[in-house]
Structures are given as C-alpha cells and as structure tokens.
Amino acid sequence: MATTQEEPAPPTQARHFVNFITGNANKLREVKEILEPAIQVESQALDLIEVQGTLEEVTLDKCRRAADLIQGPVLVEDTCLCFDALNGLPGPYIKWFLTSIGHTGLNNLLAAYEDKGAKAVCTFGYSAGPGHEPILFQGITQGKIVPPRGPTNFGWDPIFEYEGETYAEMDKAKKNSISHRGKALEKLQQWFAKEMTA
Ligand SMILES: O=c1[nH]c(=O)c2ncn([C@@H]3O[C@H](COP(=O)(O)OP(=O)(O)OP(=O)(O)O)[C@@H](O)[C@H]3O)c2[nH]1
Ligand SMILES: [Mg+2]
C-alpha cells in the first residue's frame, strides 16, 4: 500500500520583527506578550542616555540614539507617570523619583492635594535605521495613585489604580488589555499592518 508522505507543517512565519532596545526586562516581557507571534520581538539591552524634555522629545532622542548605536531598525519606549495635580510631573523622570522615594514617597507627593489622578503614558518610537525619522505611537491610561497593593515586581504597578484594581493586582492579560503600553502597541500593530499592505 502506498504511503503518503506528509509535508511537515511550515514553521509559523513571523510577519515582522522588531529590535526592542531596552534595559527593562518587565517592559520586554509585556511587549512580547502583546506583539508575538504576529510581530517577533528581538531585544538588545542598552542603557541609552535619556534627555530632559517632553514625553515625545525624550522618545525621539532615545530612538535616534538607539538607531545610531545599532546601525539598524530599532524600537524604543519611554514610560511616564504624570500626576494631574502636579501638571504632569514626575512624567519622564518617574524612574528616578521611584528609585529615590519609593511608593510611599510618591503617595506623599500628593498628600497636599485632593486630586490623586494620574496618567500612565507610554510612547514607543520606531526608526527604520540611522537617519530615518522615528515614528511615535502613544498610549495613555487614566488612573489614580493609591497606597501599594499587590505584587511589587514591576515599578509603580502597585500604586497605580485603574477602575478599583491596581496594575499589580490585575492578571497580566487584563493589564495588557487596558494599559498605556497595550494601547500604544495597538497603534503600532495597526501601522505595521498598513505598511505590509502598502
Ligand atoms: O509599574 C510600572 N508599570 C509599567 O507598566 C511600567 N513601565 C515602566 N515602568 C517604570 O517606569 C520607569 C520608566 O522609565 P523608562 O521608560 O526610562 O524605563 P527603563 O529605564 O526602565 O527602561 P528603558 O529606558 O531601557 O526602556 C521605570 O522605573 C520603569 O521600571 C513601569 N512601572
Ligand atoms: Mg530608561
């Protein structure tokens, strides 16, 4: 009896790939959770210099620097935590505030204000390589600052509350579906999808 030789299933082809330049393992995990398998995420951990400025200026500069260093296409991201009562501060400087004064200090910054509102803002920059102007994709989630609740493995997740739950208390899929990062990556995915059909 003739046997039919089955063709091995073709490997799942990544339709696009990005080289995400970040020193932050938690960011990388979330970006992979959201983008893969449609967009394959490679990564190089480089400590990029970050300038002072608006959220957009910080990401644009980070992206140009990364493209020059890598000499190829890059994706970078800058995350800000903007307190409404403080006109957007700490904003892009949240990393240094968090390191210096922690969750308690960040709550104390708002002690004098009734308004505990805060925006988590994620700005991705994609550059096709050195000399190519970066394209930005931004996502914003409105929440409020609360005393810490939930696991403490990612930055200010325990003090950022969205609809009654802190980011840290949410399961990962839920956070990704409503987060600043998830919203920004939705825009990036739409852009990549359009590029493919162009
Ligand atoms: O609780 C959190 N939930 C998040 O979703 C989130 N995203 C970023 N961060 C923290 O906010 C600062 C941003 O600074 P940042 O954008 O410069 O990041 P980074 O320096 O760690 O990495 P990178 O610049 O190499 O990509 C750093 O302290 C990050 O740990 C988060 N904390
Ligand atoms: Mg950084």
UniProtKB/TrEMBL annotation:
Magnesium keyword on record: yes
GO CC annotation: cytoplasm; nucleus
Keywords (A to Z) from UniProt: Cytoplasm, Hydrolase, Magnesium, Manganese, Metal-binding, Nucleotide metabolism, Nucleotide-binding, Nucleus
Pfam families named among the record's database cross-references: Ham1p_like
Signal peptide, first to last residue: none
Details of cofactor binding: Binds 1 divalent metal cation per subunit; can use either Mg(2+) or Mn(2+).
Localization of this protein: Cytoplasm; Nucleus
Cofactor(s) in the UniProt record: Mg(2+); Mn(2+)
Residue numbers binding Mg(2+): E50, D78
Binding site for ITP: 22-27, 62, 78-79, 154-157, 175, 180-181
UniProt function note: Pyrophosphatase that hydrolyzes non-canonical purine nucleotides such as inosine triphosphate (ITP), deoxyinosine triphosphate (dITP) or xanthosine 5'-triphosphate (XTP) to their respective monophosphate derivatives. The enzyme does not distinguish between the deoxy- and ribose forms. Probably excludes non-canonical purines from RNA and DNA precursor pools, thus preventing their incorporation into RNA and DNA and avoiding chromosomal lesions. Pyrophosphatase that hydrolyzes the non-canonical purine nucleotides inosine triphosphate (ITP), deoxyinosine triphosphate (dITP) as well as 2'-deoxy-N-6-hydroxylaminopurine triphosphate (dHAPTP) and xanthosine 5'-triphosphate (XTP) to their respective monophosphate derivatives. The enzyme does not distinguish between the deoxy- and ribose forms. Probably excludes non-canonical purines from RNA and DNA precursor pools, thus preventing their incorporation into RNA and DNA and avoiding chromosomal lesions.
Similarity comment text for this entry: Belongs to the HAM1 NTPase family.
NCBIfam families the UniProt entry points to: RdgB/HAM1 family non-canonical purine NTP pyrophosphatase
Protein name (record): Inosine triphosphate pyrophosphatase
Taxonomic source organism: Rhypophila decipiens
Lineage: Eukaryota, Fungi, Dikarya, Ascomycota, Pezizomycotina
